[in-house]
Amino acid sequence: MTALELDTLFGSLSRFPDVVADNLQAYDATDRLLLETAAGIVGAGTNVVVIGDRYGALTLGALTGLGVGHVRVHQDLFTGRLALERNAATTGLENRFTQHGLDAELLDNAGLILIQLPKSLAELEEIADAVARFAAPEAVVLAGGRVKHMSTGMNLVLEKYFSSVQPQLGRQKSRVIIARTPKAAPDEPPFPVVEPVPELGITVCAHGAVFSGARLDIGTRYLLTFLDRMTAARRVVDLGCGTGILATMYARRHKEALVVATDQSAAAVDSARGTAEANGVGERVLVLHDDAMSTLEAGSADLILLNPPFHVGASVHAGAALKMFEAAARVLAPGGELWTVYNSHLQYRGALERLIGPTSEEGRNPKFTVTRSLKS
Ligand SMILES: C[S@@+](CC[C@H](N)C(=O)[O-])C[C@H]1O[C@@H](n2cnc3c(N)ncnc32)[C@H](O)[C@@H]1O
Q1: Which residues line ligand 1 (CB under 6 A)?
Q2: Tens digits of residue pLDDT in 195-224
Q3: C-alpha 91 to ligand 1 mean position (Å)
Q4: Tens of pLDDT along 17-76?
Q5: What residue spans define the domains of the chain?
Q6: What is the pTM of this model?
């Protein structure tokens, strides 16, 4: 594939349904560098696996540019999966890839693995372990990222799982690390981590990519101090559930409640399922991989608990939280409650008033504000 053809493919990609903004793109120079590096390595019949594709640039680039008929893909984000599907349909490449968990099905007999490096070392470690455990012994791993987001810690994680780890020269502010020769995998995979949180009296299950790992986030800790003041509802949603601590704590307190714990991250959803089961509420906590409750019916919840995100990728962007508020406005039944915790400097109260309804400040500590919004 020529550089021009790759430009044409990349130019046709959209981030939708993720946040779309003028300063946010559906591909980056790392996608290009990974594909160009892969072109010198891929052979006839090589099984290609893509991990961490954002919106389809790597998967669709591999299908059009590397001469492979089929690609196995693992994407953590629900929005990324939908974007890949849409982009594949517009480029006529649908049915040429399959989505998998981070498991043997994804990696069995894989010869070339293209990875967009994740933000956290824990997420990278879970990926590196899976590749070393399941891919072919002669597999080549190309892990790429923006130089400003890469750290020597990433090399150390890869060196734990591969005998040969070679960072390549950077280009256009991106760099690829080539890893080969997987080491023998430990008996037990490093993830999920399952740890007690003594101050809550529960056990938390955390996969590598999940927000805050197995630790209790300090904003969540503050929101939980209001648990007794929240309405005793039957239809509850833990929106952006992460490890599912809010869902589990609410379900333990209110035995009649049915809680949907939902997140855009597959790692979060798997973690929340593990947390609910570890604490005996697995039957009343339904986990759902979704984007901002898009598959829940309007007016179907009486209470929503929310500790919203405020990062989109590496840039600070309020769009992600506003999208959650809009979703809560749609899914709450009239008179329903949204409880939100946020960094006080973000001043979300106006948006909550506008999008949901009357919003009261229930508490404020040196860092966080907790609000209750009533759906009008
Ligand atoms: C600040 S974390 C809170 C996690 C968890 N509720 C807790 O309290 O520890 C925000 C969570 O929202 C999720 N998230 C962000 N955007 C989302 C979206 N559009 N739909 C669903 N979940 C989303 C993130 O994956 C992340 O797990």
Answers
A1: 211-212, 217, 220, 240-243, 245-246, 263-265, 268, 291-292, 307, 309, 320, 323
A2: 999 999 999 999 999 999 999 999 999 999
A3: 31
A4: 887 888 889 999 999 999 999 999 998 899 999 999 999 999 999 999 998 999 999 999
A5: 3-182, 193-374
A6: 0.95
Q: Note the CATH number of domain 193-374.
A: 3.40.50.150
Identify which of 264, 287, 340 to mutate to test ligand 1's pocket (most ligand atoms within 8 A of the CB). 264
Cross-strand pairs, 306: 239, 340
pLDDT of residue 334: 98
For residue range 160-174, what is the model confidence (pLDDT) as tens digits? Answer: 999 999 999 999 999
Question: Ligand 1, atom 14: nearest CA belongs to which residue?
Answer: 240
Region at 172 (left for phi over 0; alpha for psi -120 to 50; beta for the rest): left
Separation of 190 CA from ligand 1 center, angstroms? Answer: 23
Share of the chain above pLDDT 90, in %: 91
The sign of the dihedral angle between the CA atoms of 154, 157, 160, 162 is: negative
- Per the CB < 8 A criterion, the answer to whether 286 and 295 are in contact is no
Ligand 1: centre distance to CA 324 (Å): 9
Give residue 30 CA to ligand 1 midpoint distance, Å: 26
- What number does CATH give the domain 3-182? 3.40.50.150
Ligand 1 centroid – CA 116 distance (Å): 21
Fold match, 3-182 / 193-374:
yes
